[in-house]
Amino acid sequence: MPLFLLSSPLALHILTQIRNKDTDQINFRKGMVRLGRLIGYKIVDTMDYKVIEIETPLGVKTKGVKIYDMDNVVIINILRAATPLVEGLLKAFPAARQGVVTARRKEIEGKEPPSEMEVDIYYKKIPEIRSGVDNIIITDPMVATGSTMLKVINDIINMQPKRIYVASVIASQYGLKRILESYPDMFFFTVAVDPELDNKGYIIPGLGDAGDRSFG
């Protein structure tokens, strides 16, 4: 699975802001939107394109680039935490169709970090996926154990899209490894890979609960 880590000073600057416990709800949400846009532009760089010839208003012909896959994108929003991230991605993919998945993980607390979480998907609305044509971007800002993401990918993979992308802000080493081993051809975009999970399954150092920090 190709891993794409956004390491530009701007991406890390925004990440630092949203990690900070003193960042308020409005600025946290704005930071998520900005990172969504940056991730979107990075995803564009991996898409198929062709060199074409056009004519300028001066009547001069010149060569340019057309990224065909930009018109064949479906963004899946794992509610509710991913909503600001999706808003940013839509700046890069204004023609994208959208789907939503509502998932709830069963909260547990033990002495050790959980190896997986029990996840229930109780609402799913995904547009028709054109086999071998559409590129799917599944968005979840925090990939902890990877259980939610794997459950969504398992559904999407059966629709035979051209390519599946994961767009996140922070992934745990463990969750990333689980997804990599299950789907080695996946394209995974994130800004940071954090080393640990706590005994409730939260990423450490992380940034807290992304949904609560965005919406209260």
TrEMBL record:
<dbReference type="InterPro" id="IPR034331">
    <property type="entry name" value="Upp_A"/>
</dbReference>
<dbReference type="InterPro" id="IPR000836">
    <property type="entry name" value="PRTase_dom"/>
</dbReference>
<feature type="binding site">
    <location>
        <position position="80"/>
    </location>
    <ligand>
        <name>5-phospho-alpha-D-ribose 1-diphosphate</name>
    </ligand>
</feature>
<feature type="domain" description="Phosphoribosyltransferase">
    <location>
        <begin position="6"/>
        <end position="216"/>
    </location>
</feature>
<feature type="binding site">
    <location>
        <position position="203"/>
    </location>
    <ligand>
        <name>uracil</name>
    </ligand>
</feature>
<protein>
    <recommendedName>
        <fullName>Uracil phosphoribosyltransferase</fullName>
        <ecNumber>2.4.2.9</ecNumber>
    </recommendedName>
</protein>
<feature type="binding site">
    <location>
        <begin position="30"/>
        <end position="34"/>
    </location>
    <ligand>
        <name>GTP</name>
    </ligand>
</feature>
<comment type="similarity">
    <text>Belongs to the UPRTase family.</text>
</comment>
<keyword id="KW-0460">Magnesium</keyword>
<comment type="pathway">
    <text>Pyrimidine metabolism; UMP biosynthesis via salvage pathway; UMP from uracil: step 1/1.</text>
</comment>
<feature type="binding site">
    <location>
        <position position="209"/>
    </location>
    <ligand>
        <name>5-phospho-alpha-D-ribose 1-diphosphate</name>
    </ligand>
</feature>
<dbReference type="InterPro" id="IPR005765">
    <property type="entry name" value="UPRT"/>
</dbReference>
<feature type="binding site">
    <location>
        <begin position="208"/>
        <end position="210"/>
    </location>
    <ligand>
        <name>uracil</name>
    </ligand>
</feature>
<keyword id="KW-0342">GTP-binding</keyword>
<keyword id="KW-0328">Glycosyltransferase</keyword>
<dbReference type="GO" id="GO:0000287">
    <property type="term" value="F:magnesium ion binding"/>
</dbReference>
<feature type="binding site">
    <location>
        <begin position="140"/>
        <end position="148"/>
    </location>
    <ligand>
        <name>5-phospho-alpha-D-ribose 1-diphosphate</name>
    </ligand>
</feature>
<dbReference type="GO" id="GO:0005525">
    <property type="term" value="F:GTP binding"/>
</dbReference>
<keyword id="KW-0021">Allosteric enzyme</keyword>
<dbReference type="Pfam" id="PF14681">
    <property type="entry name" value="UPRTase"/>
</dbReference>
<dbReference type="GO" id="GO:0004845">
    <property type="term" value="F:uracil phosphoribosyltransferase activity"/>
</dbReference>
<dbReference type="InterPro" id="IPR029057">
    <property type="entry name" value="PRTase-like"/>
</dbReference>
<keyword id="KW-0547">Nucleotide-binding</keyword>
<comment type="function">
    <text>Catalyzes the conversion of uracil and 5-phospho-alpha-D-ribose 1-diphosphate (PRPP) to UMP and diphosphate.</text>
</comment>
<keyword id="KW-0808">Transferase</keyword>
<dbReference type="GO" id="GO:0006223">
    <property type="term" value="P:uracil salvage"/>
</dbReference>
<feature type="binding site">
    <location>
        <position position="105"/>
    </location>
    <ligand>
        <name>5-phospho-alpha-D-ribose 1-diphosphate</name>
    </ligand>
</feature>
<dbReference type="GO" id="GO:0044206">
    <property type="term" value="P:UMP salvage"/>
</dbReference>
